[in-house]
């Protein structure tokens, strides 16, 4: 009766008094409150958890960072390196290799712990405003046995009489039993009185005082029933699986990976640490330094890019309560928009904004995502815009009940075509989101009410409008938009795509420096018995790339046609074909030129071995500096386009060059030679991209010729179509070309 707001059935049951008698409670004194009565009521009540999981301390996070057998192997390697080094080389330099490995272990353990602690602390601070607003809700005034007492909301039971005042949140479903009225807000304002006595969990009292009779608590409330229908599957980011570091809470750290025996561990350590003659391998610390660069450089870049762009693009117009929410928005293919989340903001200016609204919907569909409007009303208020919302006969307006009555197969067939869902309850919207996700869509839900929290949780990204949403809804959302402007959704998607694009640029740079460095170290060790790039030098190169190079690339402003990119897909490979092309070409160039110099440099320039090694290292670092420019454009030939807009890029490159000059002092002529080697990497990048483009055109030309396409003659105009007539995209479909 309460769930359906069935006033007729309530009157037939005997009204509120009849409900009170059925619950064995008094409207004046409440439930008896003795131990036996409380025990029986607790058995029938499903407790609703309202407190968040306590934040883990830094020590707990630090222990979790040790949760890897890689750390264990490195530690044993460090101990053996120290032992064998002291034994073989004496106390002067024997500690060197082991010390470098121990330093790497500290970085691999402490840096992730600091990063995770910072992220969790930032997320906690972001949610502080909502949490403070809910603090007064922790305790409520309840009448039991004729006495008023304060109880935690977790102890509210069936039949309790609860006092409600201004700014209180309704802690359960129930009936209003006072003579006056209450004005409440649950995304939209409504009045509760004798004619409409139904109260639901999560609504906020904005005016008046009174009492309520509790008829359902916890998971038995309307909100709880909806939560039970959700799948509660973990939300994945668009990052490839190998980069998505999901936290799994555990009381004690366990070694990850497959169980390995002591013999396997010792054999692995011997292969890593020792040469065939029993001495310490010169490759040991080089491998460790690359491990540090890859394991910590890439996660560091992801964290930095997400934090930077969330603050820069969202500024004061939105709050990302979940740091990865904006990144996930870059993969969204469908946005479900509650009509009440934007129409009530300025009813006189609706739909006046219809033209602008349609432009933004068109921009959204060009960006690869569809927009579905949902409404509780039969008349959605969007009739003026429906000409634009329904660009072809394949799209439809559907009532929530009809969608619910369809068979599962029929729902899956029509879910892609729905543009407006009228007369829909939260349960209908939850089913809509579930069907879209089963179809392969990434879904964002924009809601305002407490009963939409299960839908917000079910969607890949839950979004609320701050000015017209309930406090409970804001607490359960990943993104809070402070401005009710629909246009800002495009900004959020642009933020996610820009972040992802910059992360890929950084990953290409990090892979290049580590692949080239390790290959050079391997070849020189095989040929000469020592590495021309020492472990400290490789650590320096990784530091320059991870910190300054990351700053340069991660702050790259979004490109003009960024929104033309199709939605990101988690199944898409991390390293694309253009990235592989650029990576291989740069690594081969660096290895070839520096190995050639290692063999013939001393004879050609008439220099000593020490100077030769210095030139190789200096050239290696300068190649990475110039390759930062190449990494700005993964596919286009002009890597300098728009470089003037990023002042931080110039600052980062300048500081890197200054630090390198301070780190290495060599003659000016030799410095010019190193600079020339670095500059040639630009030519290599441009040549590789041009050659790749010519090969691609040469392969495509026969196909176009076979299809009757003449590149020199414009084709006949096609039939006019609506600007909004774009196909829907899911993860199983090929990307739409821009």
Could you explain how this protein is built, in words?
The protein has 738 residues and is an alpha/beta fold. 50% of the residues lie in helices and 10% in strands. The strands form three sheets. Strands 10-17-16-15-11-12-14-13 form an eight-stranded mixed β-sheet, with helices on both faces. Strand 16, helix 18 (471-475) and strand 17 (479-481) form a beta-alpha-beta unit. Helix 10 (284-314) runs parallel beside helix 20. The longest helix is centred in the C-terminal third of the chain and has 41 residues, at 488-528. It is elongated, with a radius of gyration of 32 Å. Residues 89-93, 126-136, 244-263, 268-280 and 709-738 have low confidence and may be disordered.
What keywords describe this structure?
738 residues, alpha/beta, eight-stranded mixed β-sheet, 50% helix, elongated
Give me the secondary-structure topology.
Blueprint: H1 7-12, H2 15-22, H3 35-44, H4 58-65, H5 69-89, H6 96-126, H7 128-135, E1 139-144, E2 147-152, E3 161-164, E4 173-176, E5 182-185, E6 189-192, E7 198-199, E8 204-207, E9 210-216, H8 222-229, H9 262-273, H10 284-314, E10 318-320, H11 325-329, E11 334-338, H12 354-366, E12 370-374, H13 386-389, E13 396-399, H14 400-405, H15 408-414, E14 418-422, H16 426-438, E15 443-447, H17 453-458, E16 461-465, H18 471-475, E17 479-481, H19 488-528, H20 535-554, H21 577-605, H22 609-630, H23 647-663, H24 668-706
Parallel strand pairs: 11-12, 11-15, 12-14, 13-14, 15-16, 16-17
Antiparallel strand pairs: 1-2, 1-3, 3-9, 4-7, 4-9, 5-6, 5-8, 10-17
Helix pairs in contact: 4-6, 5-6, 5-9, 6-10, 10-19, 10-20, 19-20, 19-21, 19-22, 20-22, 20-23, 21-22, 21-24, 22-23, 22-24
